[in-house]
Every structure is written in structure tokens, then in C-alpha cells.
Amino acid sequence: MGAGFYWINEPRQWRRDDDLLSVTTDEKTDFWKETWYGFERFSGHFFGADVTGDFSFQVKVRADFKELYDQAGIMLVVDENHWLKAGIEFNDGAPAIGSVLTLQHSDWATGVFPGNASEFWMRLTRKGDALRLQYSADGKIWPLLRLAHFPTVEKCAVGVMCCTPERGGLSVIFEDFQLTSALEKDLHDLS
């Protein structure tokens, strides 16, 4: 984790030790824009670095998700109207893997996580105007979670996010940050 990382909505409680970031979420934090609920939220915690061009970003996440909408994972931010977040979110009584893509309005895609959701990995690769989002339950096999168009911009920020819209106090550990040039792997290469 390089020196260029910074906060958007810095939480009251956090600690950084080398390649490990520990965060405890503040109360009623979230990222969302209008769809279905009609409200806008840009109060979630994001810790990231500015990037240009193509890249891959990968991180390991550990947390005990147990309240509605508890969430943590990876995020790409251009501004409050253009972003992607993905990871585990507690929904319908269980932790689920999912993503929210916001291009003026948010969408939400979610599914069953095939492992122990208290420890997982996320990877995001940007190539031109495409985002390839992957997750892993073991750090070895990386299924595709989402392939999406995202407008080409000169600069954006990539990093980690966590939110608790219904409460505060979710403890999250992010580790093994890897920000590299874009991985040149076939779309169906799960490594």
C-alpha cells in the first residue's frame, strides 16, 4: 500500500500498519444514488489512490457481516455520480456477493457467496472503457462477478470501501493491497 492513498469520508476509528488497514465504520454510512429508494448517499468510507490508464487492483477483506446492509470490499470512484463498489453485503439474512455500478443512477446486482464470507478477496481490472470485476473465496480461483462498460476518464481513484447504512461499528481488515498494471488474462482465466 503506497503513500498515495487517502480517505473520502475518513472514519473516526482506523489504523494502518504496513500492508494492513483496520477500520471501524461510523454510523449510517453508505454509497447509493436514487434508484428504487429515491435518496442519495455518499457518506461511506473509501480509502484509495488516484490512478490513470489501465490497472488491476486486488485486496483481501475480513469482517463479520451480521446486520442489514453491512458491506465491505473494493471501489472505483470518479465522482459522486460515477463509481463502482463491490464485495460482501449482508442482505436478506445472509452475506451476499454483489456490486453496485453508478452512472448517474445506481444499480445493484447480488448473488450467493460460495464460501465463508468473513474472509474473501476482490480484484478489479480496468482496460480502456471496460471494468472486469472478480472475487475469490480462497485467493486462488477468481470467478467473474461483473464485466461492465465504464466511461473512459483521465483519472479516477481505486481502493477499498466499507459502510453500515443501518448502524455503526462494523470492524473490517483490508490486507495484501496490490495495485499493478492491468492483468493480461483471458476473460475466462480464473487464476
Description:
The chain is mainly beta and 191 residues long. The protein has strands at residues 6-8, 13-17, 20-24, 31-33, 40-42, 45-51, 55-63, 71-79, 82-91, 94-103, 105-106, 109-112, 119-127, 130-136, 144-149, 156-163, 171-180. It has a single domain (22-180), classed as Jelly Rolls. It contains no helices and 17 strands. Strands 1, 6, 8, 9, 10, 11, 12 and 16 form an eight-stranded antiparallel β-sheet that branches. A hairpin with a 1-residue loop joins strand 10 (94-103) and strand 11.
SSE layout:
Elements: E1 6-8, E2 13-17, E3 20-24, E4 31-33, E5 40-42, E6 45-51, E7 55-63, E8 71-79, E9 82-91, E10 94-103, E11 105-106, E12 109-112, E13 119-127, E14 130-136, E15 144-149, E16 156-163, E17 171-180
Shape: globular
Low-confidence stretches: none
Query: Quick one: how many beta strands?
Result: 17
Strand content: over 45%
Distance between the termini: 22 Å
Helical content band: under 10%
The major sheet is characterized as: 8 strands, antiparallel
Which fold does the CATH topology refer to?
Jelly Rolls
Task: State Rg.
Answer: 15 Å
Q: Tally the structural domains.
A: 1
Overall CATH class: Mainly Beta
Q: Give the mean pLDDT.
A: 95
